[in-house]
Amino acid sequence: MTAGIAVGFFFQWLLAGADERHLAILGLAIPLKAFFVDGIFHVGGEIFIASLKMLVVPLVFVSLVCGTCSLSDTSKLGRLGGKSIGLYLITTAIAISVAIAAALFIGPGNGVEMRSDATFDVSAAPTLAQVFINIFPSNPIQSMASGNMLQIIVFAVLFGLAVALSGKTGERVAALFTDLNEVIMKLVTLLMNLAPYGVFFLMAKLFTTLGYGTIASLLKYFLVVLAVLLFHGLAVYPSILKILTGLNPIIFLRKMRDAALFAFSTSSSNATLPVTMETVNKKLGVNNSISSFTVPLGATINMDGTAIMQGVATVFIAQVFGVDLTLTDFLMVILTATLASIGTAGVPGVGLIMLAMVLQQVGLPVEGIALIIGVDRLLDMTRTAVNITGDAMVSCVVAKSEGEFNADIYNNPRAGEKEETIDFHHLKQ
């Protein structure tokens, strides 16, 4: 990652704001941007992201079927869902509350001039009834093809229950899925061995094309969101983990480092899901029957990072437009953002839709979103790292409460390292 960032800065310096520059080698004029940035860096990064996304659907479906059919008590699913959703809602409420408090104290919008040409169009949010209807797939194959995570989760849970209730036939199917799960996790490990190259390409392209002028003009807003994100990931999550489980939060943060770096580079909770699952299972000691449910669910409904952005953005836009918000308005923002994280789960572009809902709820102009979009790329990467850390924390808490947690794996600093290394010269062990 560091090498990619350095190369990105170097290419930005070489291009120096120009659309294109050429490098003469052996009489050939090689276009720097077209060949390296839009060529090698772009292709390498996109292949890496596509490879990660390739694993998401089979990993979620197979692991969740395995986890569900291994449950001795099917009523346990209700407890898992209640605990997981409850924890995700609580952390979201804490996230946006802290964000609003920090923004009010620092005042990132004070002194920022509003651009008169700022416009923004956002898709309409679906009704709550439609969201619940859309959770259930009419065609599970289509759901898998489109990557609709909530529909995949519902179908996998129902399929797993059917397997558990099918006697000897179900046992044979369950054994097949257990073997499939082992193979898919090995495929995840294989891609992780190639990950440094993919991360390098992603970082090199990002830091070559990043517009630092836009960030400088909104530096106060950028730093407030970044500070709250770091506080939530490094202080709030570890505190909740310590209070509810008694586990050492330093061990948790150390073991989450690689997964968080992946999330930062991909900027996608779903693309990082295979890495998060592997970390939660093999490094943090959470049983697959828990993680196969909590991690995919968190990738869909855990929006702590987005809630932080919404909290700061609401205060920022209010200050820019000279609107005074009351205590009731702020409470409404917290309630709307927290409930919307469930009510808009699985909706494409959900972050901006949720922000538009929050702004409309307190009478702020939706056009204000256009003011902050320019600095959202780096913040989005950090939000993703925070979100997957929250997914792992909730998984640990739920697993500990259900007796599905291996403390020896959690406390072992080298847990999971052996599985992460593949000798490509000796594939058969």
TrEMBL record:
Query: Key word Transmembrane present in the record?
Result: yes
Record's bilayer topology term: Multi-pass membrane protein
Provide the alphabetized UniProt keywords: Cell membrane, Membrane, Transmembrane, Transmembrane helix, Transport
**Known Pfam families for this protein?**
SDF
* Compartments in which it is found: Cell membrane
Give the chief site where it resides.
Answer: membrane
Q: What residues form the membrane-spanning segments?
A: 42-65, 85-106, 148-167, 187-207, 219-240
Q: Does the keyword Transmembrane helix apply?
A: yes
What protein am I looking at? Proton/glutamate symporter
